[in-house]
Structure formats: C-alpha cells, structure tokens
Design brief:
mainly alpha, 2 strands
C-alpha cells in the first residue's frame, strides 16, 4: 500500500474519531450549575463520531483486505479499526451527555420537551382508509386494496 494513501486514511480517521469527547460541553455537576444551563444539547458531535466510525470501519476493512491480498500483516487496518472503536465510544459518550443536558434543560424550562406525534386516528372499517378483507366489506363507492387491506375509492381520481 502506498504510504501517502495510508497516512491520509489514518489522519482522516483520527481526526474524526473523538468529536464528542473533545468538543462537547458537558452538563456541570448539580452543585456548580448556574442559570442558564450551558451544555451541548445538539447531537451534531455524536453524529460526526458515528460518521467517523463508519468511515474508519470501511477504511479498516479495505486496508486489511488489501494487506492480506499482498501477503502482509494488516497493521494499518488494525490501527484504523482501533480508531473506529474510539469513534464509536466517543459517539456513545456524546449521546449520553447530550441526553443529560436535554433533560436538565427541559426540567429548567429552557427548551421544549421532545414529544412523540399523536397516534394516527383509526378509520372506521369500510370507509376510505378503513380496514377490509374483501370488496364486500367496503362501503359501496370503495373497493378493498388487497395488499394493504384498506378501502380505497373505485375511481383513483377521487383520492
């Protein structure tokens, strides 16, 4: 393997391996908290770490396979694979601390809590979008769409 390509791959992998550990601002201990709470509540750093994990993992696999084809010890692949593990650990660390920050900021009323969307309203059987078994179980202007098992208009332009 060319040394220049190897050095570029390793440098890129190392640069992307610990964003959360290096850049994320953690929630201070309860005894040192002041208003406003200053901590990172965005998942951007953990997402960069996840991208670094994927990239480093792919590079590691590639380096190992090239070295094995050439009959060499896959040292570079193992090195970059270790970097992928570091990036994964950093992502987990980041997600944990972002969640702690968001929870504290929600409890302090600084941000809105993230809520799940309301559940979809169930449609009456036989009506448009309602469950059916066959055409006979739908209202007169509808037919049963077999794969989805829901009532749809006879005329598609009525959608």
């Amino acid at each position: 393997m060319h040394h220049r390509c190897l050095s570029i791959c390793v440098t890129t992998a190392v640069a992307m391996s610990a964003c959360s550990v290096i850049a994320l601002k953690r929630l201070p201990p309860a005894s040192k908290r002041a208003a406003p709470l200053e901590c990172t509540d965005s998942l951007s750093y953990p997402l960069i770490d996840m991208a670094g994990t994927a990239l480093s993992g792919l590079v590691a696999i590639s380096l190992v396979s090239v070295d094995r084809d050439e009959g060499e010890t896959p040292t570079a692949g193992i090195l970059v694979g270790t970097t992928a593990l570091a990036a994964a650990a950093s992502a987990v660390y980041g997600i944990y601390h972002v969640r702690r920050c968001r929870t504290a900021r929600e409890q302090a009323g600084l941000i809105e809590p993230v809520t799940a969307p309301p559940p979809a309203r169930e449609r009456r059987p036989g009506s448009q979008g309602g469950r059916c078994l066959d055409d006979g179980s739908c209202n007169p202007d509808f037919k049963c769409d077999a794969p989805m098992q829901v009532c749809v208009p006879d005329d598609p332009s009525e959608f």
